[in-house]
């Protein structure tokens, strides 16, 4: 049971959210407790959403003490909270090791969506993204990812609302923290966990090809989004260094495998950068690439301004022209509705500002 061995590696206890229900069942069995206790623990964590072992009142004190000896609750200190005029709320949380992460709650007509972070920093190196400015510090544990949604739900509890959808699109590359991400998903979708519908969860990857195949073989109903941002190898390598590890043709082949294996649609995310990848010829070339995906959907994203980057936004009329070219070629395309721009809600922007003060 490798998650529970974490305390042997770095001297700390595993987090109480680090375990799936199946892993709790194993831990309970190893500790000589009745099997139903695992379900009770899960209920306290994700239905009642308590924040201390002493609150688990239907567990014997001996078990509560044992839990306290072996596990910790995730430390997430609210460093900053910004509310946008559109209802978006962005949090900067400090973890137990003083590293900072971002979590965003976005309000839609259909409910509340939470955007979670999977790594402290990012090593992918996309040249238009604030998340990569300081490189990768470390992976988050499953519990640190899960705690972001639990914390968001606790905040929504005050108004009788609930988290209705999740996007794994915050700081970091989820497919480079794959096992933790999958544990996170197991807890999110479990009926005894937060019980979020699989089709209400989307995971985004920059194109870690081996794990696209792996994710396809999981046969989940979780949505997959691919950050593509260019229609060819040369341009994509300039914008996204990950393309040098996993070239464009390999990425497209992996996406075709995913569609064939799952029968599900892929969303291709395309950040439009003025004068870089937003010309009519780019739209035509992208349409030709995606014609092999009959259910493909392109999400056009006006690039967020990042002080340390040189990219500018594509003019509004050019965005619509790009969209029309795709649709004329039978490729479905929408323009992402901007949210939280007045509170630096794009990935990594708030953390980057925080780090300027000498924080981690």
Describe what this molecule looks like in 3D.
With 360 residues, the chain is an alpha/beta fold. The chain has two domains: 13-70, DNA polymerase, domain 1 (Orthogonal Bundle); 77-355, Aldolase class I (TIM Barrel, Alpha-Beta Barrel). The protein is 36% helix and 19% strand. It contains 13 helices and twelve strands. The chain has helices spanning 6-10, 21-30, 36-46, 61-70, 142-157, 178-189, 209-218, 233-239, 242-245, 248-262, 280-290, 316-328, 349-355, and strands at 77-83, 89-94, 100-108, 111-115, 119-121, 136-139, 163-168, 201-205, 223-227, 266-272, 297-302, 332-335. Strands 1-2-3-4-7-8-9-10-11-12 form a ten-stranded mixed beta sheet, with helices on both faces. Strand 1 (77-83) and strand 2 form a beta hairpin. Helix 5 packs parallel to helix 6 (178-189). The protein is elongated, with a radius of gyration of 21 Å. It starts with 5 loop residues before the first helix and ends in a 5-residue tail after the last helix. The model has no long low-confidence stretch (mean pLDDT 91). S-adenosyl-L-methionine binds at residues 172-173, 204, 227-229, 304. It holds the Pfam family Radical_SAM. Residues 108-342 form the Radical SAM core domain. Its cofactor is [4Fe-4S] cluster. One of its GO terms (biological process) is methylation.
């Amino acid at each position: 049971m490798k998650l529970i061995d974490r305390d042997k590696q770095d001297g700390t206890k595993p987090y109480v959210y680090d375990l799936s229900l199946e892993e709790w069942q194993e831990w309970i069995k190893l500790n000589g407790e009745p099997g139903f206790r695992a379900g009770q623990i899960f209920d306290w964590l994700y239905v009642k959403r308590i924040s201390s072992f002493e609150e688990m009142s239907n567990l014997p004190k001996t078990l509560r003490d044992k839990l306290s000896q072996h596990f910790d609750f995730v430390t997430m200190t609210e460093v900053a909270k910004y509310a946008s005029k559109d209802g978006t709320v962005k949090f900067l949380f400090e973890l137990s090791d003083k590293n900072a992460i971002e979590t965003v709650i976005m309000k839609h007509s259909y409910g509340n969506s939470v955007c979670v972070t999977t790594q402290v920093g990012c090593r992918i190196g996309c040249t238009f993204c604030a998340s990569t400015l300081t490189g990768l510090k470390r992976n988050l544990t499953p519990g640190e990812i899960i705690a972001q949604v639990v914390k968001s739900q606790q905040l929504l509890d005050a108004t009788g609302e609930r988290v209705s959808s999740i996007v794994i699109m915050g700081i970091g590359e989820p497919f480079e923290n794959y096992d933790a991400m999958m544990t996170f998903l197991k807890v999110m979708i479990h009926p005894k966990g937060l019980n979020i519908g699989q089709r209400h969860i989307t995971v985004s990857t920059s194109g870690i090809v081996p794990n696209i195949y792996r994710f396809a073989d999981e046969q989940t109903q979780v949505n997959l989004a691919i950050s593509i941002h260019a229609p060819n190898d040369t341009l994509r390598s300039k914008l996204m260094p990950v393309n040098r590890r996993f070239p464009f043709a390999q990425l497209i082949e992996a996406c075709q495998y995913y569609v064939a294996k799952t029968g599900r649609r892929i969303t291709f995310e395309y950040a439009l950068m003025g004068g870089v990848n937003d010309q009519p010829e780019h739209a035509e070339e992208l349409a030709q690439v995606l014609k092999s995906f009959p259910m493909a959907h392109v999400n056009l994203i006006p690039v967020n301004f990042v002080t340390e980057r040189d990219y500018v936004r594509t003019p509004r009329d050019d965005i619509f022209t790009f969209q029309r070219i795709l649709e004329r070629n039978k490729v479905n395309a929408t323009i992402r509705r901007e949210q939280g721009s007045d509170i630096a809600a794009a990935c990594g922007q708030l953390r980057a500002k925080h780090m300027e003060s000498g924080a981690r």
